[in-house]
Amino acid sequence: QSVVRVVFHDRRLQYSEQQQLEGWRWSRPGDRILDIDIPLSVGILEPQIHPTLLNTVEFLWDPLRRTSIFVQVHCISTEFTLRKNGGEKGVPFRIQIDTFGAGGKGDPPEHLHSASCLVKVFKPKGADRKQKTDREKVEKQPAPEREKFQPAYESTVLAEVG
């Protein structure tokens, strides 16, 4: 079983995460922060979307079969910034996936693995502009500094949480 969550990356927002999520729920009644895109996902079994946990989805999967999950994040990074007049930096989110094995009778499930990646979510036009300016900033850096940046990928690569 795996649990996927969208959480705040910044520690200061982690402390107020519940209040932030409640504020979002109040301003967007009936909406969710995270969903599974079922038609694009492969090999997932029993997807569960909890009505009260807006930033969490769960699913079962067989580790012997090819499995991939596509998730949709329905909020943008600037929804959690203080100013709302445009040009906000936006808060970074972390997509985290925790995987558990089946526990024995009466035992809690065994934690097997955790991985995460940092994401910022922008509207399409803003995202294109942000990617362009980020790319230009990196290209201006000297070669040794450029090597510190992770290369771009077509799909999101999760790094193991240590």
From TrEMBL:
One of its GO terms (cellular component) is nucleus. Pfam families: CP2. GO terms for molecular function: DNA-binding transcription activator activity, RNA polymerase II-specific; RNA polymerase II cis-regulatory region sequence-specific DNA binding. Residues 1-162 form the Grh/CP2 DB domain. InterPro entries: CP2, TF_CP2-like. It is found in: Nucleus. Keywords: DNA-binding, Nucleus. It comes from the Eukaryota. Its main location: nucleus. Residues 124-162 are annotated as: Disordered. The keyword DNA-binding applies. PROSITE patterns: GRH_CP2_DB (PS51968). Coiled coil: none annotated. Residues 125-149 have a biased composition (Basic and acidic residues). PANTHER family: GRH_CP2 DB DOMAIN-CONTAINING PROTEIN, TRANSCRIPTION FACTOR CP2. This is TFCP2 factor. It comes from Scopus umbretta (Hammerkop).
